[in-house]
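Progress against Task 2.4 (sequence-to-structure conversion) is shown through the following example record, which the project officer requested during the mid-term review.
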Amino acid sequence: EVGPLSFFNPNTTTCRFLMETAIAFLNLKKNEILLDIFCGIGTIGLCAAHCCDKVIGVDIVEENIQDARRNAERNSITNTEFLAGKAEDLIPRI
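Structure tokens generated for the chain above:
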């Protein structure tokens, strides 16, 4: 799900390659937590969720966070948490 205030890359072939490359570069371990700051609708975190213990996404746009939560639910991804607010306020409390 993509809201009107969200960024979406319509070139899905390139986007898939970008996500696969970014996730490989992260070299995540199953016991690690991925902190996705400025997560938008959760694309990177949701794509990487199978590689780590948990994904925590943060974005200032509430609509993006709602979309990210719906996207996780629609894709049966259960190891995510998405928080709305300023990164500088939320990160110290995570």
